[in-house]
Design goal:
The complex is a heterodimer of chains A (245) and B (908). With 245 residues, chain A is α/β, with parallel strands linked by helices. Chain A has eight helices and ten strands. Chain A has a single domain, classed as 3-Layer(aba) Sandwich (Rossmann fold), CATH 3.40.50.300. In chain A, helix 6 links the parallel strand 7 and strand 8. In chain B, a hairpin with a 2-residue loop joins strand 3 and strand 4. Chain B has 908 residues and is of the alpha+beta class. Classes of the chains: A alpha/beta (245), B alpha+beta (908).
Chain lengths: 245, 908
């Protein structure tokens, strides 16, 4: 089991400096993130909160290599991914990062186990046997009897657990979740968060959860608050980078 | 009400502007369909106008009188004994017609044609390679009565200006190219020693109508006085008449027919024929146009479905603020209508562009021998625009009806929106409406009513033509819709089956086939669109390709040689052999005497038919038995004959040259009678007392796949030449020599053969091949053009469908990229998916052409299928189908595969 508050002894798996993302929206440029510095350690469970439009999802996208920053740098597991090509980023996403989305984003034409096996099948050097690994993860998340079902035949909670299993398929060190319980009822939402805790505790995966539900944020090791594209402290003042690490 | 409509219009325009990409897809679908309608309609009108407005020029007069068709070898050879009675108008008829001309005051000019003539260019006193042509002897000062035959070199000069002396000649461009002749060169023609001077070169389409040989082989205009050089009688094969103003062409035509026994063709008949041709062309273009529009309609349905499903939330929101279902439907119908209007405007422009392109590449000149002219009418524009708007609106109606059914509660679960559906009853209603509207349009455009009410079938006689049009249109459209429905259903099933294909452990293939399965209806309609286009093209390409191959096979490959010489005198045939023995590059030749003059008398001293009846054959069998052995061909044992296979005995060899042996064909009757080697066949001449006993040495197997000469030998009894000819009679010798000459030596061999005197008739089989190819290409030019247009429409729809599918699946692509899939692999997935569609469409579409082509090929060659099916064309069509699908995918999916996943996930 990974101890909860022992950052100093663990390496930083996510490190961002001066992260800025500007989004052109018609003739206007939106500053989604403005010079964010942050550092997240292995095995941490970090919540990112903030009002709508504060840049939470943008931050998650940049950390996950789904998007590139306008300025600043990001390092994942000690590797600077800022200037990586799209193909290199795809490798990083496949090997180092697992994504869980609010709307599950499962491939509708594939069964639960085929969805889970997909990232392994996409890998250049698959670390597991795809279907065996899919069955193992679905068993772990209590979906053994649902593995042959397609997404439309599963409840929201089940779909989200399939999505979590898929995110863990290649055993990535980082799991990024964007409002994972946002589209679920309370019980299903709790089950998802409980699954995250189990994963962190048993596998040691670093988990970053974007949420605006306080009871979920409270269950995180640490919470970062974003306002207008900046990380702020408890008083709502821009936080110093040192505080964040 | 007006305010509401204005609001709808404004809303629809804004939506179209906001969904620029989708709007563009829809507009392209409509524009291609309408463009095809307008383009083909204008072309068919142009062909009609051109034929009708130039009828007198096309006919070269008001009435053309001609003899029966036939080829006169007599002039070619300078042999007077050859019967030429079938090739000229009877002298009494000519006299009677000229007398009538004097009485009634109409003008008349004569033409002598239908005479094969061999010409060659003379350089430094030596004749070059001889070419077979059709000479046209005319009176240049008056011929033709209408328009002028104007030369391309010297440009614009008329026959009257160019042919001033009997030794002047004007030749066709194709002949000039074959001979390498230019204005001022001298040519040698047939047996005539007098040389002719080329004074001008005219385009290939200047031979006039009813001159197939001239079109095929090339032609040359000679002065009518030049016939004296050729020693042929001054009896015309055609007479052209110009009717003075005020005189009825039909009355005169009738009068001429009453006093003579000639075939006549009046300008009024030509006009009627032109009208029929123009109508037929119009109908053909209508079929292609409707096909294109229908394919365009599929594009509209697909686009509108995507528009509606992407805007389900917006529709739900509009409903929550009080808009009713039918108002939503109206809103989208207005959008579909606007798409139809804008698409039609683009389509009309595209149609005119297509016509411009056709004129630029001069397809028409190849097809009808004339540049197209068109008296501008609004007809094509109006028809195209109406069809475009109506079809867009009614095809867009089903998705818009579905839009009206979106439940306002959808607004509460914006990320869990079901695809709107119109419901079974409404769908049925829309289909019936579509059928009726399309039926009315088709009925009116086809306009079969006036004909059917007059000529039947009985049920239509006397009925109101408009009602007949409605019945025909609606019935035809209903049947078509039902057939299309069944086809789409079958294709749906096919896509379902494709979705069940094993992925053989390939995740890419698995995703591709699952994606196919996931959009079965749309993929079925995409298949349909591509299949229609490929099928149209393959029917034309493969069938003409097969005919071409069969003809080529029978002419060239199957001749057993690439140079053929026909000789009609012993001196010539000996000369031909001498040349072939002497010139370089001759790999072998076979010479047959095909006119031995010998006829079967007895077999082992018994009457052949009696023998057959004794063997149990019926009357017909007995006649066949005798007929197949009835005459004998002589083989020149000095050549290297290509022999058929034997079923019994042995083959003739040079050792048998002086022995009276015969090889007979193993026909079913011969086998039934049980003839064996050793039996004796007695042949005798009817012209002399020459009789020969020929002992059977071998029995051949009937050829199935064999070269032409092998076939001829396999079907004919043959014996050494010295026995198989009636040497004592004055029979005209007719010997055929097939020579295989290396390509680079063909011209020199032909030149040497052509220089023989008396001259043999020499064919370059390779040249005949290319002539036949040219004629076939010209014949298929217009239907190919029309089907290429359909295919182009199909390709645009494919691109549209792929684009929509990619557009719809941007989120899925984003997810897969988030999971680590690289851009190239995303593209590969989409290419694989659509490549399967392209391959399946290609296989089905090509089958439509390949099976009839195979059938035709089999019929023409009695089973030698592999020889006739144009495998290359089939592969090309398959590759084209896959290429279109892949090209469309690349065009539309490239961008999607390169997008950052965040961009897609953020905005989808």
């Amino acid at each position: 089991m990974v101890p909860k508050h022992n950052n100093g002894s663990r390496p930083a798996v996510i490190e961002a400096k001066g992260l800025t993302r500007e989004l052109p929206l018609g003739k206007v440029v939106i500053h989604a993130l403005c010079g964010v510095d942050l550092c997240i350690h292995a095995g941490e469970m970090v919540g990112v909160v903030g009002p709508s439009g504060s840049g939470k999802s943008t931050l998650l996208g940049l950390i996950g290599g789904l998007d590139s920053p306008t300025h600043g740098t990001i390092a994942i597991d000690g590797v600077d991914i800022t200037h990586m090509s799209e193909n290199q980023l795809a490798e990083i996403r496949n090997q180092k990062i697992g994504f869980v989305f609010q709307f599950f984003n499962l491939i509708p034409s594939l069964t639960a186990e085929e969805n889970v096996a997909l990232p392994i099948q996409f890998a250049s050097h698959p670390p597991f046997k795809p279907m065996a690994r899919a069955r193992e993860l679905l068993d772990m998340l209590g979906l053994a009897d649902r593995r042959r079902h397609r997404p439309t035949e599963l409840s929201g909670g089940e779909q989200q657990r399939v999505a979590i299993a898929r995110a863990l398929a290649n055993n990535p060190p980082i799991l990024l979740a964007d409002e994972p319980s946002g589209n679920l009822d309370t019980a299903a939402g709790e089950m998802v968060i409980s699954a995250f805790r189990t994963i962190r505790d048993e596998i040691g995966t670093t988990i970053v959860v974007v949420t605006h539900e306080h009871h979920i944020a409270e269950q995180m090791d640490r919470v970062l608050t974003l306002v207008d594209g900046r990380i702020v402290d408890a008083q709502g003042q821009p936080a110093r980078s040192g505080v964040l690490c | 009400m007006l305010k509401l409509i204005l609001f709808y219009l404004q809303h629809a325009l804004r939506d179209m502007s906001r969904n620029r990409k989708l709007t563009l897809f829809a507009l392209v679908s409509v524009a291609v369909g309408v463009g095809t309608v307008v383009g083909l309609r204008i072309l068919s009108l142009m062909v009609g106008d051109t034929l009708e407005s130039n009828a007198q020029a096309v006919l070269r007069g008001d009435i053309m009188l001609r003899e029966r068709r036939g080829m006169d070898f007599g002039m070619l050879l300078g042999v007077e004994e050859v019967d030429t009675s079938g090739t000229a108008i009877d002298g009494y008829d000519v006299q009677a017609i000229y007398q009538l001309a004097e009485q009634r005051g109409f003008e008349i000019t004569k033409v002598i044609d239908n005479k094969g003539l061999q010409v060659s260019i003379v350089r430094d006193g030596t004749p070059g390679v001889p070419r077979l042509i059709e000479p046209l002897f005319v009176e240049p000062e008056v011929f033709p009565f209408y328009d002028t035959i104007s030369a391309e070199d010297p440009k614009g000069a008329s026959l009257a200006e160019l042919i001033r002396e009997p030794t002047d000649v004007v030749i066709a461009r194709s002949l000039a190219d074959q001979l390498g002749a230019q204005v001022g060169d001298q040519i040698h023609a047939g047996p005539v020693e007098q040389l002719f001077t080329v004074r001008g070169i005219v385009p290939n389409n200047q031979a006039g109508i009813h001159n197939f040989l001239a079109v095929l082989f090339g032609f040359a205009y000679f002065d009518i006085d030049a016939i004296s050089y050729f020693n042929i009688p001054d009896t015309p094969s055609k007479l052209f008449i110009r009717v003075p103003e005020g005189m009825s062409v039909d009355d005169l035509d009738h009068e001429i027919r009453s006093i003579s026994d000639v075939a006549s063709y009046a300008v009024t008949e030509l006009l009627a024929d032109s009208e029929i041709a123009s109508e037929a062309l119009g109908r053909l273009s209508l079929v292609f146009s409707l096909t294109s529009l229908f394919i365009g309609g599929i594009g509209i349905i697909n686009t509108m479905l995507v528009i509606v499903s992407r805007r389900t939330l917006e529709i739900a929101v509009l409903k929550t603020i009080g808009l009713k279902g039918r108002q939503i439907t109206l809103l989208f119908i207005i959008e579909a209508f606007l798409l139809g209007v804008l698409g039609s405007v683009l389509g009309v422009a595209l149609g005119f562009g297509l016509v411009g392109a056709v004129q630029a590449v001069q397809i028409s000149e190849a097809v009808i021998g004339k540049s197209l002219t068109w008296n501008f009418t609004f007809d094509p524009i109006v028809i195209g625009a109406i069809m475009g708007v109506v079809i867009t609106t009614i095809f867009g109606f089903l998705p818009t009806l579905a839009a009206g059914q979106v439940r306002p509660a959808a607004v509460l679960r914006p990320n869990d929106l079901p695809i709107p559906k119109a419901g079974k009853l409404r769908t049925l209603f829309v289909l019936v409406l579509m059928t009726v509207v399309l039926g009315v349009m088709v009925g009116q455009i086809s306009n079969a009513g006036p004909v059917l009410t007059r000529y039947g079938p009985d049920m239509f006689v006397g009925m109101n033509p408009t009602v007949i049009n409605l019945i025909i249109g609606i019935t035809g459209t209903t049947i078509t819709m039902i057939l299309l429905g069944i086809t789409v259903g079958l294709l749906w099933l096919l896509v379902w089956l494709l979705g069940r294909l094993p992925s053989f452990g390939s995740v890419d293939l698995k995703l591709a086939v699952r994606a196919l399965h996931g959009h079965r209806t749309r993929n079925a309609s995409t298949l349909l669109a591509l299949i229609i286009g490929i099928a149209a093209l393959s029917v034309i390409t493969l069938i003409t390709g097969t005919v071409e191959r069969v003809l080529q096979a029978q002419l060239s490959d199957a001749f057993g040689g690439n140079v053929v010489a026909l000789s009609f005198t012993g001196m010539t045939s000996q000369g031909v052999m001498n040349v072939l023995n002497r010139v370089e590059g001759v790999q072998g030749y076979t010479q047959y005497n095909v006119n031995s003059g010998l006829h079967l008398q007895t077999i082992n001293g018994v009457d052949p038919e009696r023998l057959a009846r004794e063997a149990g054959l019926d009357e017909q069998g007995a006649r066949l038995f005798r007929g197949r052995l009835g005459s004998v061909w002589g083989v020149n044992m000095g050549g290297e004959p290509v022999y058929p296979l034997l079923v019994a005995g042995e083959q003739l060899t040079s050792a048998h040259a002086d022995q009276p042996f015969i090889v007979i064909p193993g026909t079913p009757e011969v086998l039934a009678v049980g003839l064996q080697p050793g039996d004796v066949l007695t042949y005798s001449s009817r012209r002399s007392d020459y009789t020969v006993n020929l002992t059977i040495i071998g029995i051949t197997k009937l050829p199935e796949e064999a070269s032409f000469d092998m076939k001829m030998l396999g079907m004919m009894p043959y014996a050494p030449d010295r026995f198989a000819s009636d040497q004592s009679s004055s029979l005209i010798e007719f010997k055929m020599t097939f020579a295989e000459v290396e390509d680079s030596f063909v011209d020199s061999a032909l030149a040497e053969l052509g220089a023989l005197a008396p001259q043999p008739l020499v064919f370059d089989i390779g040249l005949i091949d290319s002539l036949i190819s040219r004629i076939l290409n010209e014949m298929k030019a217009l239907p190919t053009f029309a089907s290429v247009l359909s295919l182009a429409a199909g390709a645009v729809i494919i691109a549209n469908t792929v684009a929509l599918a990619t557009f719809e699946r941007r989120r899925e692509v984003g997810i897969m990229k988030a999971l680590g899939l690289k851009g190239n692999r995303v593209l590969t997935l989409l290419l694989l998916e659509n490549g399967i569609i392209g391959a399946v469409s290609g296989i089905i579409g090509v089958s439509f052409g390949a099976f009839p082509a195979a059938w035709i090929g089999t019929e023409l060659t009695q089973g030698a299928l592999t020889m006739t099916l144009p495998i290359g064309s089939i592969i090309a069509l398959l590759l084209m189908s896959v290429g279109i699908a892949l090209g469309a995918t690349m065009l539309t999916a490239w961008g999607a595969s390169r997008q950052k996943p965040m961009t897609v996930l953020r905005y989808e």
